[in-house]
# Entry
Amino acid sequence: MKILIIGDSCVDRFVYGECNRICPEAPVPVFNPVYSRDNEGMAKNVFNNLMSLSEDWDIDFITNKENILKSRIVDIKTNQMLVRIDDNDKCARFGGLKELENYDVVVISDYNKGFLSESDIKHLIKKYPISFIDSKKTFGEWAYEASFIKINQSEYEKNKENLIDYKGQ
# Structure
């Protein structure tokens, strides 16, 4: 089985530290970093998860070249995230749709950072017989022919009317 995973990726950085006092200049905690951990995120996380399921699959991965960084500042005692800082939160659009090989399955992991447009996603869904899509975009007709759409509760609420309209057609 030949699989294509395509979408925007980032580095997920978790900075753990201590908050033992409040800043005298403003009512915010003073954060003292202790250690940090980086994970490959977004589409790269999807790729890593699928690779962990089988070494026998033939998987190609296409993602952005820009280094999107999502830093989470976390209190080490409570594991409470204090703030998330997003750096370089956009990327260039993928320009190689016409050069893509044939695949049995496409997994589209779109975090709406600019790597794939709605028309790009529609093209991928039409081109490949089995398509999985996880997108942060508001769904429209461009997504309705996907084999599978992954959606969480907040995305469902954002897309409820569009999804109901589609089911009614």
Q: What stands out?
A: The radius of gyration is 19 Å. The chain is about 20% helix and 40% strand. The beta strands are 2-7, 9-22, 29-42, 58-62, 69-75, 81-87, 105-110, 130-135, 148-149.
